[in-house]
Amino acid sequence: MLTDLGISLPVLAAPMAGGPTAPDLVTAAGRAGSMGFLAGGYKTPSALAEQIAAVRADGVPFGVNLFAPNPVPASEEDYHAYRDALLPEADRHGVHLPDTPIEDDDHWAAKIDLLLADPVPVVSLTFGLPHGDVVAALRAAGSMVVQTVTSAPEARLAEEAGVDALIVQSSAAGGHSGTFTPARTPPGVPLPRLLRDVRADTRLPLVGAGGVSRPADVTAALDAGAEAVAVGTALLRTHESGTSAPHKAALVDSDFDSTVVTRAFTGRPARALRNHFTDRFESSAPCAYPAVHHLTSPLRKAATAAGDSRLIHLWAGTGHRDARAEPAADTLMRLAGKA
Fold first, then answer.
1. Could you tell me the CA-to-CA distances from 227 to 81, 91, 102, 168 in Å, in that order?
2. Would you place residue 133 in the very low, low, confident or very high pLDDT band (cuts 50, 70, 90)?
3. pLDDT per residue over 305-331, tens digit each?
4. pLDDT tens-digit map of 89-98
5. Which of 73, 146, 160, 299 has the fewest beta carbons closer than 10 A?
6. How far is CA 176 from CA 17, 67, 233, 302, in A?
7. 76: burial class by Cβ within 10 Å (0-12, 13-18, 19+)?
8. Could you say which cofactors this protein requires (predicted)?
């Protein structure tokens, strides 16, 4: 897989939606002999097209990640109960929370149309498994299709859908889990064991992800059957990332000393630094995506602008303390054992 894409470094830059994966980060990864993925989630098709054009102009290998539709609708009762719980914090920041649930598919059809009309080298998918016809169309357009999975059963389903490769994500990963069943939090299986479980069921190329923060983690994943690893949290503090200043600061702040898997921010399981928001709202947050994402979004944006780390979704994997403020190329080369 890596040879086909012209990649010499087996440490890839994972997509991180919401700002951290800026085009500069994807370009920096490509120039280092790696490859980065533009994060298509939460972007309009036109904004994604602009970022594709910007990275393509640099002539580096790259991919685009999309959120495949896998909605868990919110009941009116659960939605309004959670909204009421959030109102004191929203009032404190002077923001209005949506009165009714917003259910959308993140412009799925339009983004697929974009990638069919203007193909990119790799399309990676997460949150759900699209219909095999979509996979076939992307492959026919010339893109390699890579599916994020969190278990061996999901890997089997993805192989049956016709994908070219798998990103095998352990629960140690920062940000959203790619699980197909968001009502169930994936168990804490170490990445090497998860890779071996998946390798026993498929011969597709595997990319390991989740908790990779040191060269030894890369070696362990490769020894377990992966062709490469994908890292996200390790790149959050790099010079080229678009991570917000409060988020970068929290990654090295002793007040944020642990991570937790929570649905409080978006209604899907995601690993973040433990803060006031996770402590206060996890128990009352419904499993309902994307309604919860849209409900909390105005509050999270206001908190970020105000530097209020108590209320920000501080996505981070278990190895967040190893993230360094340095050029992205240095991080990727160091993890690959080349520095």
1. 46, 49, 39, 11
2. very high
3. 999 999 999 999 999 999 999 999 999
4. 999 999 999 9
5. 160
6. 10, 11, 12, 21
7. exposed
8. FMN
Round to whole Å and give the CA distance between 112 and 28. Answer: 26
Give the C-alpha separation, 297 to 288, whole Å.
Answer: 14
Find tokens 């070696």 and name the residue. 219
- Provide the residue type at 270 as one letter: A
CA distance 165 to 145: 7
First-to-last alpha carbon distance for the chain, in angstroms, is 24
Work out the average pLDDT over 119-123. Answer: 98
Q: Across-strand partners of 145?
A: 123
**Calculated CA dihedral for residues 336, 328, 142, 228, nearest 10 degrees:** 20
Query: How far is Cα 94 from Cα 299, in angstroms, rounded to an integer?
Result: 9
Structural domain range at position 171: 1-69+106-242+319-339
User: Cα(280)–Cα(267) distance, rounded to whole angstroms?
Assistant: 15
Q: Which two tokens stand for residue 148?
A: 């994020």
- Pair (119, 258) in one structural domain: no
- Residue 64 CA: distances (Å) to CA of 17, 134, 149, 327: 11, 15, 17, 22
Count Cβ atoms within 10 A of the Cβ of residue 330 and give its class: 0-12 exposed, 13-18 middle, 19 or more buried.
Answer: middle
Both 80 and 24 in a single domain?
A: no
Domain assignment present for 247: no
